[in-house]
Amino acid sequence: MRMSDSQITFYRLQACPYCERVTRKLEEYGLEYRSRFIEPLHSKRNVVKRISGKRTVPAIVDHETGVTMSESANIVEYLESTYGDDGREEAA
Amino acid sequence: MVEFDVVELGPADHPIAGETAPDFTRPLVNREFWEDVSLSELTDEGALLLVFTPMDGAFPATYVWNEIRDRSWGESVTVVGLSISTPYEHMDLLEEREIDHALFSDPGNGVAREYGIEHELDGMTGISEPRPAVFLLGENRIVEYAWVADEWPDFPPYDEIEDAIESL
């Protein structure tokens, strides 16, 4: 499998409950994602700052829609509206 | 030069020149993050030098990475490392030693078993790691050059490896 083909890049921190919440959503909707784990120290989170403007995780980049987003509540809402049943109905 | 009392490790049944190196997927650690990467993803991009070292913090790992940095091999070929150290330890090593290469993390030592270079550590019960080893891989993971330690400790033959890189 070529993981670089994954639709979503998911920046996460090991054992972070907010990240796990996003993981569950990604799995619920069967989305292909590539996990990138970062360090706990905020000062070492340059990659997340560069892509999202913030040093917080979770953060996702959806290569399909071009959306970059952080904060789990926002991400969950985005995934629900884009890939959930509601989103699909609205799109239809 | 320091005289070492070395231990013979005996022959290893590892992939040799002309054979295909086994593919594997493990977390690949750079200075900013780690993510699962397959060896084949890297070899698809071009020639690759795969360097197996003792665990981070052991002096041979430090020596090997210092030498590779000083010889600027990264300018001629993609260099990646592998040890049993965790991603967190790899991140520290990359930063402390100013290493510009990515390192695979394989605490379970499964890759070394796959490559026939497993080394049970005397006095560290339950821990095995790869023998020091270097594989130069071309297209489709064909081995262009291989070196595996047959004594412990042992260091890669840097000049010989450099010749192999130059003759790619």
Automatic annotation (TrEMBL), chain A:
<feature type="domain" description="GST N-terminal">
    <location>
        <begin position="6"/>
        <end position="87"/>
    </location>
</feature>
<dbReference type="Pfam" id="PF13409">
    <property type="entry name" value="GST_N_2"/>
</dbReference>
<protein>
    <submittedName>
        <fullName>Glutaredoxin 3</fullName>
    </submittedName>
</protein>
<dbReference type="InterPro" id="IPR004045">
    <property type="entry name" value="Glutathione_S-Trfase_N"/>
</dbReference>
<dbReference type="InterPro" id="IPR036249">
    <property type="entry name" value="Thioredoxin-like_sf"/>
</dbReference>
UniProtKB/TrEMBL annotation, chain B:
<protein>
    <submittedName>
        <fullName>AhpC/TSA family protein</fullName>
    </submittedName>
</protein>
<dbReference type="InterPro" id="IPR036249">
    <property type="entry name" value="Thioredoxin-like_sf"/>
</dbReference>
<dbReference type="Pfam" id="PF00578">
    <property type="entry name" value="AhpC-TSA"/>
</dbReference>
<dbReference type="GO" id="GO:0016209">
    <property type="term" value="F:antioxidant activity"/>
</dbReference>
<dbReference type="InterPro" id="IPR000866">
    <property type="entry name" value="AhpC/TSA"/>
</dbReference>
<dbReference type="InterPro" id="IPR013766">
    <property type="entry name" value="Thioredoxin_domain"/>
</dbReference>
<feature type="domain" description="Thioredoxin">
    <location>
        <begin position="15"/>
        <end position="168"/>
    </location>
</feature>
<dbReference type="GO" id="GO:0016491">
    <property type="term" value="F:oxidoreductase activity"/>
</dbReference>
